[in-house]
Design brief:
194 residues, mainly alpha, 74% helix
């Protein structure tokens, strides 16, 4: 098999995994099922991904790349106020989480994020760095890293509880935007009147 064929098969295995997580969730991502859907022997993925964790990490990196592209597009050229950019980033994050529940679940599995040698941190931490930078510019009087971490945790909680229907039941809301605004107010202070 040539190098380009090997790269093509490696990409196809990841593509199949991305499709599988989108339709059936993270729990469906077995080496055997990915190989079956890719039309290769069940041992073939091991040539490119020696462990199941490495294949899952490659699939999760695609999710982080997608989320990163969406975040970059939402933030735009950086001319909007830091608060507006944080709002856009939060909205994109929540939309991604709700539109891609299987990928979102996979991306934030603690066991993958703890595996620094798999390169997942290289795609996840820069996005958090963008949030830290924006929080720091929106509130230069605060220590941006823990505030950004708390905001991220709040957004993650909104995404999970919204997906399960708990927030709609508890708040009567039919849109997550008021919850996003409340989270931003809680972490960054009320938005200044223009």
């Amino acid at each position: 098999m040539s190098a380009s064929e090997a790269a093509g098969l490696r990409d196809r295995l990841v593509d199949v995994g991305v499709g599988l997580v989108a339709t059936e969730g993270a729990q469906a991502l077995t080496l055997r099922e990915i190989a079956r859907r890719a039309g290769v022997s069940h041992g073939a993925p091991r040539r490119y991904f020696p462990t199941h964790l490495e294949l899952l990490s490659a699939i999760a990196r695609r999710g982080f790349a997608d989320l990163g592209e969406r975040a970059g597009a939402a933030i735009g050229d950086g001319t909007a106020s830091p608060r507006a950019q944080v709002t856009a980033l939060g909205r994109v994050y929540l939309e991604f989480a709700l539109d891609n529940p299987g990928m979102y679940e996979l991306m934030f599995r603690h066991d993958l994020l703890e595996s620094g040698h798999l390169g997942l941190r290289d795609t996840s931490l820069p996005l958090f760095g963008v949030l830290v930078d924006l929080v720091g510019r929106a509130r230069p009087d605060l220590d941006a890293r823990p505030v950004a971490g708390a905001l991220w945790a709040n957004l993650h909680g909104i995404a999970q509880l919204w997906r399960w229907g708990s927030l709609q039941l508890a708040t009567g809301a039919d849109d997550f935007v008021p919850l996003l605004r409340s989270a931003l107010d809680a972490h960054l202070g009320p938005e200044a009147a223009v």
